[in-house]
């Protein structure tokens, strides 16, 4: 990026100063992307890292008997600049989470790359002055 005059430099400084505002946009897009990835994994009866679900008591995974778990617990939401899974509306979701339908501790590589790409796009858009 070539800076031609002081006013352009001031504008770049203003944009850099307002980067924290971009984090909410990033979080919203990441939550939408994580919801899609989570739904795809759930429908395939796979963990987010690609492994198979842990078997239930009878030897087969039974996480989608009523559809409530998939409908609520595969949703991610943005709260400010934070992205979180919304499992609270299904009382047994936290218990079933041990079977691996949500990421734990670290994000799978694919999910992390999606988040990085969204962050790069939003920061680049912001620095160019696009909304």
Report on the structure:
The chain is mostly helical and 131 residues long. The chain has one domain (21-128). It is built from 5 helices and 2 strands; from the N terminus they run αααββαα. It has helices at residues 6-17, 19-43, 68-73, 93-96, 109-128; strands spanning 76-79, 82-85. A two-stranded antiparallel ribbon has the order 1-2. Helix 2 runs antiparallel to helix 5. The longest helix is centred in the N-terminal third of the chain and has 25 residues, at 19-43. It is elongated, with a radius of gyration of 19 Å. The two termini are 19 Å apart. 15% of the residues are buried. The mean pLDDT is 82.
CA distance, first residue to last residue: 19 Å
Q: Identify the overall geometry.
A: elongated
Task: Output the helix-strand order.
Answer: HHHEEHH
Number of helices: 5
- Average predicted confidence as pLDDT: 82
Structural domains: how many:
1
Biggest sheet layout: 2 strands, antiparallel
Report the strand count.
Answer: 2
Alpha-beta classification = mainly alpha
Q: Gyration radius, to the nearest Å?
A: 19 Å
The percent range for helix content is 40-55%
pLDDT < 50 stretches: none
Spell out the key features of this protein.
131 residues; mainly alpha; two-stranded antiparallel sheet; 5 helices
Task: Give a brief rundown of this model.
Helix content is 51%, strand content 6%.
Question: What's the topology here?
Answer:
Elements: H1 6-17, H2 19-43, H3 68-73, E1 76-79, E2 82-85, H4 93-96, H5 109-128
Antiparallel strand pairs: 1-2
């Amino acid at each position: 990026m070539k800076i031609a005059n002081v006013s352009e430099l001031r504008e770049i400084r203003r944009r850099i100063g307002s980067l924290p505002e971009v984090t909410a946009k990033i979080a919203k897009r990441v939550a939408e992307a994580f919801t899609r990835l989570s739904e795809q994994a759930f429908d395939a009866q796979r963990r987010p890292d690609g492994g198979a679900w842990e078997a239930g008591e009878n030897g087969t995974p039974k996480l989608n008997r009523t559809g409530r778990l998939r409908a609520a617990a595969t949703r991610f939401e943005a709260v400010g600049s934070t992205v979180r899974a919304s499992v609270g509306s299904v009382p047994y979701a936290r218990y079933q989470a041990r079977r691996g339908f949500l990421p734990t501790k670290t994000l799978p590589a694919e999910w992390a790359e999606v988040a990085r790409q969204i962050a790069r796009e939003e920061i680049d858009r912001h620095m160019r002055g696009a909304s």
